[in-house]
């Protein structure tokens, strides 16, 4: 079995994986970083979004071996200690989560949106979120949270 | 502490763990030595299982065992129950067919569980499941409801595939109303099949402890005690005392996680068999195949009216699809949660409904957000629109003419319910103002200039939730009472642990129940901890569904708090050397009326656990529980109005405005309630425009079996909903609250279809009103012009 080594949330992590092992499986099962979720098997739902070398990636769509040597950030690595990342804080302030299952992927995706477009319009936000499904919120408060984070007026 | 928390938009305390990736869902829980289960599922909709050959699978790497229903039968595992007996028109109970944990004779839908492989890793279990050879003899697949009664028989117990033929209302009275009617409006309606799809797939982890001969089952359950009751009382020989169910963080439910399922039952059996923990997590494809589905009705509705459009009588004929097996509450949904709502907000004097519920070779159908009430509201609001069109009356006006008036409450409907309170015109008027109803023609003209077809549509719904008064539903056939429990346990330091029988899977109970308790007891909000979801910790409770948690569970908490205060008064009276009758409790302080002598709640709690200066004969401790059985359903109601713009060249419908005005009685946390509305609306919009659970009529394959084929609502399908409230407090619970969880899913489908039909200038368009369907109708309409 191939061995992979990557930096995950600033720490080096390595393990033996099968060739077919997905990045999300490596994160959840080998590293027990269970904040990254799996909500589908067709790369539609986005619950598994992490950052690989600073870009948002659906970690169910990438093999662990493809991430060998990469820097990976998961939801567990987003906050600085006890201080929430501004996007996390904006989600809290705007009630942009209910059951919490889509939330890690949604937050990681939203952070990447603002990296690429620091002041997106509502339409741009809604279109960006096309790859992230939420069954609880109806999206309105997620859109609002991202707008607030973009404006820098999160809690 | 003078600032009351009830009514404030407190941000949720549960957010922090979810936002940091520290939630703990079933699939996140790790147990040493765990094995993985993979199910062998039938690829046939209907087939005799002649033989299962597991030789190759057993020889595969990592495989610990391969088992079938026969193995569970040997250990006395019985049928998963359906707990609601429907009495048919002929007086007989419904035709109940068994649902064994893994089939023992035939596969009855694509995805039916035939065998299970247990292996060291998930990959090994799945690889080996591919090696299990099943010899099937395919039979005719019964998919089309309109032909099911003449098709191949699915269960020996149900001739003609009929589960029941049931009626409600006074048929003779309705016929008399139709005989004298000025006009009868008619519609044939499809209420499309839905696949609920909470984002967290179902999962189970079972662990047997040999030393104590006991089991722990982690399950994605909305109601862990009910699951334990069914498993102990019906399915297995395991006593409740030896079975602990834990439902930790659960990623959305919407009904689909109420039920006892085959997969978790098999894990429970297998853990003892193999002597190690056994886990199974559904993948999304399995969720599509084997989660309970929803809706799936065919209905003819007829409304008789006088010259002014006043409703005289309503006749409803429904065929309901229950799928291949009866899910736990399947029988109740197209009957007592559906036809009892056929009065809606209208004073229709005569109503009759006949429902035939059928078995088909499709996934079992049961409750999903709204559960019967969306089907009722949809047909009522569609026929109200049709009646208005037929008579040339404004759709707002025809509703106004037929509303039950505020002075008519309590109002006995002709279909078994008594509405306690409401003011339907108040919600209608507020919604009309919020959307600027009178300005619509100008907006339509402006849209026309841009080449868009703009339409406006509304619905005025009522629903019955806060399930449910036990005596009433037992008359309807329920096998359980739907009270709720709470325990309010003071700790010696003055903090409070509240144990509730409800379960939160997104609703934010840790916050809202905390608000309630902090206000009731006058203790700091941060000192109140809410515990739910573990049968070994919380008192017996009935779980969360039917918008019941605050109305029923919250009321139980209030009752328990009242008991704490009563006992606190006795302790305070003793400590303050006063009569109990002279002790007043306010905002966390017990005081002697007319004096400055007082004790705080924390002082009383400490005294209760250090009972040295204590009343004679009074038990130590400050820990009270309460059970609350509601006196009636609660009846949220409201009016939703939306405006759409259709591009006739593409059929794409854009929802440009949506106003929701709802009467939920007292609102504990407006932020959370608004979130519930948004979510319900999204699911209702999904049903109306996007989602369709579709089986191939010949093969019985689920055509819409993934997120690539089944269209879930996405952010760019939905508008920024505008929410408003009216308030007639519920008359029969201590909080004055009504349920808010399902209203959006109930109101949305008729609202959106009304607007799309209005834009197209047609009487009706069937759900889901996909772009293709809309485009075709827009073309036909244009051609007709």
Mind explaining what this structure looks like?
Chain A is α+β, with helices and mostly antiparallel strands and 155 residues long. Chain A is 32% helix and 15% strand. Chain A has two domains: 3-77, Beta-grasp domain (Ubiquitin-like (UB roll), Roll); 86-150, [2Fe-2S]-binding domain (DNA polymerase, domain 1, Orthogonal Bundle). In chain A, strands 2-1-5-3-4 form a five-stranded mixed β-sheet, with helices on both faces. In chain A, a hairpin with a 2-residue loop joins strand 3 (49-52) and strand 4 (55-58). In chain A, helix 2 packs across helix 5. Chain A starts with a strand and ends with a helix. Chain B has three domains: 31-139 and 200-251 and 257-290, Aldehyde Oxidoreductase, domain 3; 294-467 and 632-784, Aldehyde Oxidoreductase, domain 4; 483-628, Aldehyde oxidase/xanthine dehydrogenase, molybdopterin binding domain (Aldehyde Oxidoreductase, domain 4, 2-Layer Sandwich), CATH 3.30.365.10. Chain B is of the alpha+beta class and 785 residues long. In chain B, strand 13 (294-305) and strand 14 form a beta hairpin. The mean pLDDT of chain B is 97. Chain B has 19 helices and 28 strands. The longest helix of chain B has 27 residues, at 549-575. Helix content of chain B is 28%, strand content 23%. The chains are: A alpha+beta (155), B alpha+beta (785).
The overall pLDDT of chain A, averaged over residues, is 96
Please identify which CATH superfamily of the largest domain in chain B we are dealing with. Aldehyde oxidase/xanthine dehydrogenase, molybdopterin binding domain
Counting structural domains of chain B, the number is 3
DSSP summary: helix tally of chain B: 19
In short:
The complex is a heterodimer of chains A (155) and B (785). By secondary structure, chain A is α+β, with helices and mostly antiparallel strands. Chain A has helices at 23-30, 86-93, 103-116, 122-128, 140-151; strands at 3-8, 11-16, 49-52, 55-58, 71-73.
Q: Any key phrases for this structure?
A:
heterodimer, A: 155 residues, 2 domains, five-stranded mixed beta sheet, 5 strands, B: 785 residues, Aldehyde Oxidoreductase, domain 3, Aldehyde Oxidoreductase, domain 4, 19 helices, 28 strands, 28% helix
């Amino acid at each position: 079995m191939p061995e992979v080594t990557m930096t995950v949330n600033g720490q080096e992590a390595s393990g033996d994986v099968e060739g077919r092992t997905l990045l999300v499986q490596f994160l959840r099962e080998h590293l027990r970083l269970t904040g990254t979720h799996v909500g589908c098997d067709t790369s539609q739902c986005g619950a598994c979004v992490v950052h690989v070398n600073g870009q948002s990636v659906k970690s169910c769509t990438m093999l662990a071996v493809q991430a060998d040597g990469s820097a990976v950030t998961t939801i567990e690595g987003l906050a600085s200690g006890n201080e929430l990342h501004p996007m996390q804080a904006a989600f809290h302030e705007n009630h942009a989560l209910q059951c919490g299952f889509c939330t890690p992927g949604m937050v990681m995706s939203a952070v990447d949106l603002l990296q690429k477009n620091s002041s997106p319009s509502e339409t741009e936000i809604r279109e960006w979120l096309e790859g992230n499904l939420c069954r609880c919120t109806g999206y309105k408060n997620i859109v609002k949270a991202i707008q607030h984070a973009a404006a820098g007026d999160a809690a | 502490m003078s600032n009351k928390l009830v009514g404030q938009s407190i941000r949720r305390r549960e957010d922090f763990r979810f936002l940091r990736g520290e939630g703990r869902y079933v699939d996140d829980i790790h147990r040493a030595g765990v094995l993985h289960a993979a199910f062998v599922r039938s690829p046939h909709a209907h087939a005799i299982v002649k033989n299962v050959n597991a030789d190759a699978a057993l020889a595969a790497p990592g495989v610990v065992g391969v088992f079938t229903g026969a193995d569970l039968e040997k250990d006395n595992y019985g049928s998963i129950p359906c707990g609601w007996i429907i009495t048919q028109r002929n007086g007989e109970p419904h035709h109940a067919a068994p649902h064994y944990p893994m089939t023992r004779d035939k596969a009855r839908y694509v995805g039916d569980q035939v065998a299970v492989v247990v292996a060291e890793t998930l990959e090994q279990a799945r690889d080996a499941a591919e090696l299990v050879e099943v010899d099937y003899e395919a039979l005719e697949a019964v998919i089309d409801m309109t032909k099911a009664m003449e098709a191949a028989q699915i269960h020996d117990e149900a001739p003609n595939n009929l589960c029941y033929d049931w009626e409600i209302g006074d048929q003779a009275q309705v016929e008399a109303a139709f005989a004298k009617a000025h006009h009868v409006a008619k519609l044939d309606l499809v209420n499309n099949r839905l696949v609920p799809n909470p984002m967290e797939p179902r999962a189970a982890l079972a662990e047997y402890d040999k030393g104590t001969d006991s089991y722990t089952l982690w399950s994605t359950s909305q109601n862990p005690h009910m699951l334990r009751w069914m498993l102990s009382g019906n399915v297995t020989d395991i006593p409740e005392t030896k079975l602990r169910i834990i439902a930790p963080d659960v990623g959305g439910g919407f009904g689909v996680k109420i039920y006892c399922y085959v997969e978790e039952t098999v894990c429970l059996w297998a853990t003892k068999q193999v002597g190690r923990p056994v886990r199974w997590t559904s993948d999304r494809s399995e969720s599509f195949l084997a989660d309970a589905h929803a809706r799936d009705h065919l209905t003819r509705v007829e409304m008789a009216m006088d010259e002014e459009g006043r409703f005289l009588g309503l006749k409803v004929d429904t065929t309901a699809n229950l799928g291949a097996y009866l899910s736990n509450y399947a029988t109740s949904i197209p009957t007592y949660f559906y036809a009892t709502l056929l009065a809606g907000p209208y004073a229709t004097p005569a109503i009759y409904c006949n429902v035939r519920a059928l078995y088909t070779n499709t996934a079992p159908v049961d409750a999903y957000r709204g559960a019967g009430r969306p089907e009722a509201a949809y047909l009522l609001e569609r026929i109200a629109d049709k009646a208005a069109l037929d008579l040339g009356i404004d759709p707002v006006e025809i509703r106004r003419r037929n509303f039950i008036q505020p002075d008519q409450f309590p109002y006995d409907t002709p279909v078994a319910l008594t509405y306690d309170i409401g003011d339907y015109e108040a919600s209608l008027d507020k919604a009309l103002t919020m959307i600027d109803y009178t300005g619509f023609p100008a907006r339509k003209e402006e849209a026309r200039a841009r080449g868009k077809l703009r339409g406006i549509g509304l619905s005025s719904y009522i629903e019955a939730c806060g399930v449910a008064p036990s005596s009433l539903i037992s008359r309807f056939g329920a096998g359980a009472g739907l009270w709720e429990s709470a325990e309010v346990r003071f700790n010696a330091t003055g903090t409070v642990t509240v144990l509730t029988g409800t379960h939160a899977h997104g609703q934010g109970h840790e916050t809202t129940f905390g608000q309630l308790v902090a206000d009731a007891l006058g203790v700091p909000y941060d000192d109140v901890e809410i515990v739910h979801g573990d049968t070994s910790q919380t008192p017996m409770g009935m779980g969360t569904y039917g918008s019941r948690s605050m109305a029923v569970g919250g009321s139980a908490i209030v009752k328990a708090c009242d008991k704490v205060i009563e006992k606190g008064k006795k302790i305070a009276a003793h400590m303050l050397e006063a009569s109990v009758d002279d002790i007043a409790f306010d905002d966390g302080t017990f005081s002697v009326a007319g004096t400055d002598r007082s004790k705080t709640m924390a002082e009383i709690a400490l005294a209760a656990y250090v009972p040295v200066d204590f009343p004679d004969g009074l038990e130590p401790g400050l820990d009270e529980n309460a059970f609350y059985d509601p006196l009636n359903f609660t009846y949220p109601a409201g009016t939703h109005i939306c405006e759409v713009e259709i591009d006739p060249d593409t059929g794409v419908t854009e929802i440009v405005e949506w106003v929701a005005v709802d009467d939920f009685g007292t609102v504990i946390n407006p932020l959370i309630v608004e979130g519930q509305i948004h979510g319900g609306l999204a699911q209702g919009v999904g049903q109306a425009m996007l989602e369709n659970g579709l089986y191939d009529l010949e093969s019985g394959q689920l055509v819409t079996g993934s997120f690539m084929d089944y269209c879930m609502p996405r952010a760019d399908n939905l508008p920024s909903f505008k929410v408003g409230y009216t308030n007639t407090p519920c008359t029969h619970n201590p909080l004055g609250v009504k349920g808010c969880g399902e209203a959006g899913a109930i109101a949305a489908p008729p609202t959106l279809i009304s607007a799309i039909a209005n834009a197209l200038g047609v009487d009706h368009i069937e759900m889901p009103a996909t772009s293709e369907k809309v485009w075709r109708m827009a073309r036909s309409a244009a051609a007709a012009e």
